[in-house]
TrEMBL record, chain A:
This is Mitotic checkpoint protein BUB3. The keyword Magnesium does not apply. It comes from the Eukaryota. WD repeats lie at residues 95-136, 254-288. Pfam families: WD40. Transmembrane segments: none annotated. The lineage of its organism: Eukaryota, Fungi, Dikarya, Ascomycota, Pezizomycotina.
Automatic annotation (TrEMBL), chain B:
Residues 115-195, 217-247, 283-306 are annotated as: Disordered. GO terms for cellular component: nucleus. It comes from Triangularia verruculosa. Residues 136-153 have a biased composition (Basic and acidic residues). The keyword Metal-binding applies. Residues 42-70 form the C2H2-type domain. SUPFAM superfamilies: beta-beta-alpha zinc fingers. Its main location: nucleus. This is Zinc finger protein. PANTHER family: BUB3-INTERACTING AND GLEBS MOTIF-CONTAINING PROTEIN ZNF207, ZINC FINGER PROTEIN 207.
Length: 347, 334
């Protein structure tokens, strides 16, 4: 068996994790954004993760992503700002200001686009190839509050309230100047409940979404009846409730989805504290890892697919009046075996 | 089945799976089967050496340990014989293969019918119209009220009866435990006049001819007597459909498949579905569509499903953002 080891990051955030992401190259740099108002930069080596730096913000950070190089990061803040951070110097530049907290931020390296989604029901699109930082972003109004955002090489998927899903064409976004382009496709989510996460397939073929109701859907971009007939959804991240509580299932939200950059399989992380690996083509679960001590908040594969980072912290559940992730927030890194995430492909 | 698949394989795939003569387990591929046989059936209990065949093990026992091997380990009661040389799928007597195939086909259609009954979906490749499909029953509010009233009256009657200690002539719901005679077998007892589910392809070559003497294998070539006790030790296997009309006494218990133990026979709850099918064929509607109260399963599902986070409009992050410790006030910071 090829080795597969798991280790824990020694200096994790002090409060809940909102997002974590690896750099897309093979430098194994890991960014973690937290509700403790910081962004953490770790460097993963063979069997340990060391904190390189942390970057303070004015307010909780809701999302983070790498920019064109592994030395640049973008953050989405509760303080309604989208910022660029120079990871070496720590310099922060405000790129965009929304009128509500910024929920997600995504950078598309192929089109040099920075896209942020805010609860003010807009997308801000920065074209970083031509314009200077000072230029105003392109503002795209959305019909609902965005909750998740993901980009493939040519598409951008925005999941909103009321099960709305808009798919934008990145080249169109890149060439748009003043008038906001209309979505390439508008869809209704295949899932009946609030969307929790979206992740695009690295091969640009489609995407997966997950909802608060323990379910994941896989869909394809191509708008032909054949492709659309291939879409499917399945239940996951559920537990049988003890009989004395009336039996049935306890259904956890699926908080995180991440596609493996090489094999195209994907991982899901749920409020039940488990991570499962799925083969989207063969429609099979390949693996389910041992339960983590808290809910899985975010997942990320490294650019070369060697590591899987898992951010865990207590999940916010219905009925909670307060929340504190202190001391219970941890980041695990799993070094995957050679073929651990490799799917068998369709039979 | 060794491995549960997400998709349901079709019957050809199932039949193509190699399986073990000694224990009827089936495998993904021949390599797995052979390693299974070496580990389970051809392993020397003295030294752990794994041999390729039962004969090989016998010779090994004889020469190395000076012992005589009398039976194959972990095998079904009637398949322990050493006289048949089995290696993977080689050497399995034709009649046993046919029996196995029949069982697979049988189980396949049972499982398919079960799925159909459970989901209401037509079988793969069919756009509907065939098979027992789930009926969507449209009821007017009067009908619903009437049904509720009926149900209440019935419950009241049951309660009363229970209080009086008099048994009620209640039709047992299909989901009750299998009857003792069924319990021993994953197959339904042969039902005279009820051929196995309509639509099941007939495998006439395998069906025993009516009037065939018990123990003879229909149109199959008879095994030479030197074939040992195995074929004759096998109990007569009724075919589906069973043309004789009457099951040989004690058949279900003696079936080789029964000895397989847990996991060998497919389709847990097969008895239930068999009963459903038989009821459907006999024109009896299952309780669900009749006057019975809603099936407890659905009720339990509704009651039991508890979502850890159930706000379908507002995300957990938005709720957290409203907490004092995370809240952001622009004015304060400006």
């Amino acid at each position: 068996m090829a080795p597969s080891t798991q280790f824990e990051v020694s200096q994790p955030p002090t409060d809940a994790i909102s997002s974590l992401v690896f750099s897309s190259d093979s430098s194994h740099r890991l960014l973690v954004s937290s509700w403790d108002k910081h962004v953490y930069l770790y460097s993963i080596t063979d069997d340990q993760a060391s904190l390189l730096n942390k970057y303070e913000h004015r307010a909780p950070v809701l999302d983070v992503c790498f920019g064109a190089s592994n030395n640049v990061a973008f953050t989405a803040g509760m303080d309604r700002q989208v910022k660029r951070i120079n990871l070496t110097t720590g310099d922060q530049t405000v790129l965009s200001k929304h009128s509500e907290p910024v929920r997600c931020v995504v950078y598309s390296p192929s089109h040099s686009l920075l896209i942020s989604a805010s609860w003010d029901n807009t997308l801000h699109v920065h074209n970083l190839s031509s314009s200077s930082d000072a230029s105003e972003p392109l503002v795209i109004p959305l019909p609902g509050k965005p909750h998740a955002l993901s980009s493939s090489p040519t598409k951008l998927v925005v999941a909103m309230t009321a099960r709305l899903v808009h798919i934008y064409d990145l080249p169109v976004l890149a060439s748009a100047t003043t008038t906001p382009p209309s979505p390439w496709q508008t869809r209704e989510s295949s899932l009946k409940f609030l969307t929790r996460a979206v992740a695009c397939m690295p091969n640009d073929a489609g995407y997966a979404t997950s909802s608060i109701e323990g379910r994941v859907a896989v869909e394809w971009f191509e708008d032909t009846p054949e492709s659309q007939a291939r879409k499917y959804a399945f239940k996951c991240h559920r537990q049988a409730a003890p009989e004395e509580e009336g039996g049935g299932d306890i259904v956890y939200p699926v908080n995180a989805l991440a596609f493996h950059p090489v094999y195209g399989t994907f991982a899901s992380g749920g409020g039940d504290g488990t991570v499962a690996l799925w083969d989207a083509e063969a429609k099979r679960r390949m693996r389910q890892y041992q339960k983590f001590p808290e809910a899985v908040a975010s997942l990320g594969f490294s650019g070369d697919g060697k590591y899987l980072a898992i951010g865990v912290c207590p999940g916010f559940e219905t009925g909670m009046e307060d929340y504190d992730g202190k001391g219970r927030t941890r980041v695990f890194v799993r070094e995957l075996g050679e073929t651990e995430a490799k799917g068998k492909g369709p039979k | 089945m060794g491995k549960k698949k997400r998709g349901h394989p079709d019957v050809e795939e199932l039949l193509a799976r190699p399986w073990c003569y000694y224990c009827e387990r089936d495998f993904e591929d021949l390599k797995l089967l052979i390693s299974h046989q070496k580990a389970k059936h051809f392993k020397c209990e003295r030294c752990g050496k794994r041999l390729n065949t039962a004969g090989g093990l016998s010779v090994h026992m004889n020469q190395v340990h000076k012992e005589n091997l009398t039976s194959v380990e972990n095998a079904l009661a009637n398949r322990q014989g050493l006289d048949i040389e089995i290696f993977g799928m080689e050497g399995v007597p034709e009649d046993i293969i046919q029996q196995h195939n029949q069982r697979i086909i049988q189980n396949f259609y049972t499982a398919q019918a079960e799925r159909q009954a459970a989901t209401g979906n037509p079988p793969r490749g069919l756009s509907g119209g065939q098979g027992p499909t789930k009926k969507i029953k449209m009821e007017t509010s009067e009908e619903i009220k009437k049904r509720l009233a009926d149900h209440r009256a019935k419950v009241a009657a049951q309660k009363e009866a229970a209080a009086n200690g008099t048994p009620l002539p209640v039709v047992p719901p299909p989901a009750t435990g299998p009857s003792p005679s069924q319990a021993a077998s994953p197959f339904p007892p042969p039902q005279p006049g009820f051929p196995y589910p309509a639509g099941a392809p007939a495998y006439p070559a395998m069906a025993y001819q009516p009037g065939a003497a018990p123990g003879a294998f229909g149109n199959l070539p008879a095994r030479p007597p030197s074939g040992g006790p195995v074929p004759s030790a096998l109990p007569q296997r009724p075919s589906y459909p069973y043309p004789g009309g009457v099951a040989p006494p004690g058949y279900p218990v003696a079936s080789p498949v029964d000895a397989l133990g847990p996991g060998a026979g497919k389709g847990p709850g097969g008895d239930d579905i068999d009963q459903l099918i038989r009821m459907a064929e006999a024109g009896i509607k299952p309780a669900k569509t009749g006057e019975e109260p809603p099936a407890p399963v659905t009720e339990k599902k509704k009651k039991g499903m508890r979502m850890v986070y159930d706000d379908t409009e507002v995300s957990p992050e938005e709720k957290m953002a409203m907490l004092p410790r995370y809240r952001w006030v622009e004015e304060a910071a400006a």
